[in-house]
């Protein structure tokens, strides 16, 4: 599924409810909650805070997907095409950070377009 399909699937789903998209500040709060849930799962899986025996097993992939859902809602509500925004962001990083880190030697990855 590409990003345009994701935009549409989220928009179709949200469009099925009278309430529609939340206000931007509410979506930012929701995104913050979801990032906190991701942080908790990462801390349990890779950090020094093990889960309590009564806590259910979490899923980092689903927490990331929850964040993606909120990002898509946010973008849709503001009329932002994330594919275009992503391309602009990558160009910014390529320009700004091209000499910040050490390039891999013998990299098999193709050059960026």
Description:
The chain starts with a helix and ends in a 16-residue tail after the last helix. The protein has helices at residues 3-15, 24-46, 60-78, 82-97. It is flat. 63% of the residues lie in helices and 0% in strands. It is mainly alpha-helical and 113 residues long. The model has no long low-confidence stretch (mean pLDDT 91). It has 4 helices and no strands. The chain has one domain: Helix Hairpins (Orthogonal Bundle).
Keywords summarizing the entry:
single chain; mainly alpha; Helix Hairpins; 113 residues; 0% strand
Radius of gyration, CA atoms, in whole angstroms: 18 Å
Provide the low-confidence segments as ranges: none
Tell me, what is the CATH class?
Mainly Alpha
Order of helices and strands: HHHH
Please give the alpha-carbon distance between the first and last residues. 21 Å
How would you state the average pLDDT, rounded? 91
- Would you tell me the structural class of the helices and strands? mainly alpha
Task: Count every helix, treating DSSP H or I runs of 4 or more residues as helices.
Answer: 4
* CATH topology title: Helix Hairpins
Total number of domains: 1
Strand content: under 5%
CATH superfamily: MazG-like
CATH architecture: Orthogonal Bundle
What portion of residues is helical? 55-70%
Number of strands: 0
- Largest sheet, strands/sense/barrel: none
Instruction: Give the overall shape.
Output: flat
């Amino acid at each position: 599924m590409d990003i345009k399909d994701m935009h549409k699937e989220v928009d179709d789903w949200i469009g099925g409810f009278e309430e529609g998209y939340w206000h931007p500040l509410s979506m930012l709060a929701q995104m913050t909650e979801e990032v906190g849930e991701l942080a908790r799962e990462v801390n349990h899986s890779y950090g020094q805070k093990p889960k309590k025996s009564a806590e259910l097993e979490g899923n980092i992939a689903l927490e990331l997907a929850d964040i993606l859902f909120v990002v898509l809602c946010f973008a849709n509500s503001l009329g932002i095409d994330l594919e275009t925004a992503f391309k602009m962001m990558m160009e910014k990083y390529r320009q700004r950070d091209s000499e910040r880190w050490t390039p891999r030697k013998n990299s098999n990855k193709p050059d960026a377009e």
